[in-house]
């Protein structure tokens, strides 16, 4: 990953500077420069929110991105109207990160801001109206009509009115024309009222009225008044038991929440009486949404191999900003992370650990929680907005010095990161597809660490080729763990031939004899089984039932994708296409199939084959609610499920000792990823799934069903020689110009009218061809799905040379080209989506 960030001086305050660049909300693409009025000079700080006028009428809230002394060339700078924050909302390092992200991923800085701020902190503005101070009804040239006068009357009594207020006053639905006319007559002003959306969580609590709490004698006297009223007496006693104000009257301040005071049998009405009689009072108390949890254990002592890896990583960090920890599944990477995190926290710096979405709800988080307790914040995509704001504020206040989170946690307001860990760094889900910024969290994390002068540790059992390439080039440090922790050995692979079994009539409900035997053996030993069916990134393809043939692109070295509508096989990359053959070009069989099998059907088949076994299924359907995933894992962990069928979800960081057999239901589906990454992904998926098997003392067994077990990719993957596999694949990547040898940029052109979309895509293509930068432009091609939500789409793929400033030049030119195209009337409603490092 290269930095496109041009160093710029980010002064903390305005100093002697006269201008400020302001980040404005979407759809305003870039920062605009404003004058700093002398009066506001002392309040101007990077990251503070300001109010500015934009265009003729609009008043917007933005954030100060930069202060400097250069007046804008193309326009006259307007003054900043007001500064909203005494303490900036966002720190200068964050702003720097946003600027980098917008430049690198070719998007609006306002889009980055939108993604970065949890919606609970987002600036929301509501239009309000007020009287124009310069307006004088006596001297005004414009007569007002009745309705307009009514609005002005209302404004005499109230400083401001909302649109809603105006609608009520006049009893009409469309108020805007009337207000517009009033603005034109210079009678009113429209402005935006800024408000924060975050709402703290408040609890209703009760406590003794303060005079009683402070005075023991008065409190004694109270007992006499409640005598003979057992219900009231019991409440009073319970309060004093939980809040011992006799010993310490200050405890009364925080009181007790109503629910814990009123136990079963207690009546709300007795409490009400106590309040009415001036003994208790109720009050509102702001509480944390995220509960405190205590650390429960010390970190484990590292084994000597782990210790050596730990030391090596630290040595690498002395000279390298980034280190790749390549350790086989079950090698104990997590324990090494824990030690590193502890060291960095002790030195007083912050730590961020990124995890793929789904892994966040699992074991690994509770393992970390056990060691780090309440100083660890968790930033989850299933959190509510308010919960996210609390993590945000927790980072600001120092409550959380360590955060584990999903990709969006790179936007948290860290000010002194010492270390970022990206676990499972190869995970495709680190890339955000939609909407912009379409960033890759791993790459963004490396950049973020760079801004903080921090270190980044990438960890994986199956590193992405990008990262491994960087490591072999010496750009990253490389530390490898070749063996599992303890006595556990690597699992054993078995290829089960679907075609052969079918011919011999051994196939039962899509399962081979091998699969059935291995499952049965595990069940007999009371061990557990995981069955994996690939889903994500799955595009339909055509395959021969007999020999396993699939269509391949002649120019790109990728599998062809099945397009049902056109009855064609097409290349996702170069657009090569062919008709679906009637019979298999390799063996002549007419048994060509296109469909895959879903997890649901596999679950059904297995429950017929193993009626005694307790089945579980984990996929999007069964984990839709917030706790679905956790519940299934808990059941599986407690041994209440014998066979768990699932998609990618069952692979992420799971560590269950009783799993000894892993079945891959459709191995061919894994190989036929329609992408130049097919090999890399196949290696990753098979190795990761297999890695769940035999993590303790019993050796794991992995069964892969395939119609074409001779496929050389299996051979390569199963040999488990990552380096050799990497070396061979890189040869192809180089030959066919694919990452990491080039940078990929995908541009999608969208429009509801097919002709316009096509024309715009070709216009873009012509313009790009003129850019003087080392590159290959492919396409435009009809999108894999030619029409999404009634928008036709065309895709262009650009391969950029990695040397020199090719990328910077190209991206700058691209921005200009898109701006120019968009300004053409015929393309006004065309949408262009740029995806950098598309993967
Ligand atoms: N030093 C140690 N002392 C005790 N137990 C350990 C130690 N290191 C690892 N383990 C245990 O070994 C198992 C595997 O370790 P861990 O889950 O950290 O491996 P990993 O490399 O992260 O695996 P994967 O990449 O497959 O998720 C876990 O159950 C873990 O608790
Ligand atoms: Zn092709």
From TrEMBL:
Ranges of residues in domain Helicase C-terminal: 579-734
A Pfam family annotated for this UniProt entry: Zn_ribbon_PriA
Cofactors: Zn(2+)
Keywords assigned: ATP-binding, DNA replication, DNA-binding, Helicase, Hydrolase, Isomerase, Metal-binding, Nucleotide-binding, Primosome, Zinc
Co-factor binding comment: Binds 2 zinc ions per subunit.
Sequence ranges assigned to domain Helicase ATP-binding in this UniProt record: 314-481
Gene3D superfamilies: P-loop containing nucleotide triphosphate hydrolases (3.40.50.300), PriA, 3(prime) DNA-binding domain (3.40.1440.60)
InterPro entries (alphabetical): DEAD/DEAH_box_helicase_dom, Helicase_ATP-bd, Helicase_C-like, P-loop_NTPase, PriA, PriA_3primeBD, PriA_3primeBD_sf, PriA_C
Oligomer and partners: Component of the replication restart primosome.
Task of the protein: Initiates the restart of stalled replication forks, which reloads the replicative helicase on sites other than the origin of replication. Recognizes and binds to abandoned replication forks and remodels them to uncover a helicase loading site. Promotes assembly of the primosome at these replication forks.
Name of the molecule in the record: Replication restart protein PriA
Protein source organism: Algoriphagus aestuariicola
Phylogenetic lineage: Bacteria, Pseudomonadati, Bacteroidota, Cytophagia, Cytophagales
